[in-house]
Amino acid sequence: MIRVQAEDFDPGVEMARFSGNGAIGGVCMFLGLVRDFMGDGTQVGGMTLEHYPGMTEKQLAAIEAEARRRWPLEDVLVIHRYGRLNPGERIVLVATASAHREAAFQSCHFLIDWLKTRAPFWKIEHTAQGDCWVEAKETDDQAAARWE
Amino acid sequence: MKVLYFAWLRAKAGLGEEEVAPPAGVADVAALVDWLKTRSAGLADAFADMTLIRVAVNQDYVGLDHPVCPGDEIAFFPPVTGG
Fold this sequence. Notes:
By secondary structure, chain A is α+β, with helices and mostly antiparallel strands. Chain A has one domain: Molybdopterin biosynthesis MoaE subunit (Aldehyde Oxidoreductase, domain 3, Alpha-Beta Complex). Chain A is built from 4 helices and 8 strands, in the order E-H-E-E-H-E-E-E-H-E-E-H. Chain A has helices spanning 11-16, 55-70, 101-118, 138-145; strands spanning 2-5, 26-33, 46-51, 73-81, 83-85, 90-98, 121-127, 130-133. In chain A, strands 1-4-6-2 form a 4-stranded mixed sheet, covered by helices on one side. In chain A, strands 5-3-7-8 form a 4-stranded antiparallel sheet, with no helix packed on it. In chain A, helix 3 (101-118) crosses helix 4. The longest helix of chain A is centred in the C-terminal third of the chain and has 18 residues, at 101-118. By secondary structure, chain B is an alpha+beta fold. Chain B has 3 helices and 5 strands, in the order βαβααβββ. Chain B has helices spanning 8-13, 29-37, 41-46; strands at 2-5, 17-19, 54-57, 60-62, 73-77. The mean pLDDT of chain B is 97. Classes of the chains: A alpha+beta, B alpha+beta. At the A-B interface, strand 3, helix 2, helix 3 and strand 7 of A face loops of B.
């Protein structure tokens, strides 16, 4: 399931939804938070996430479908927020459930790596020096390329 | 066709979306970009370096040689930074 929303979410509530399915032996979750510093150490007062409504959901659904094609998954949940977010706030949750842990771990890692390079979100960071669009990182491209 | 701009491209273009009717010879993304650049200084600046820009037609990633047709939704944006 894909959810793109401005509102916060409760990771405990989301994880509890995976209980009660006897086919699931393991659930792996990645939770992304807003840092309070940039790569060069500059303090960040928050960020605003912009996205492309429609394409975001389409690309996330395609990434979920690819994960389900590669691993035997019982369930997938991706939640991504947009709008103004303060340091420490939750941005993204990826959770995968499978009969065995290896598929859950690997597919969760795959989903966050591909999401970062394919889902049309853009971050602008707010600092005391002004606003700054975050640039895509080569390390993220390399992380995604591992799964090609 | 509808053209959308996101992130710093929107700021440079000075608008988030526009409905355009390019001349008949504009058949692919590259030709559309060349035509859009003639429409304003902001768009010429936004499209100055196409290596910094990603393109989607009807919400799928495409290359500059992808055809464009009336009714298409064409989006231009920088490399994505979600997650």
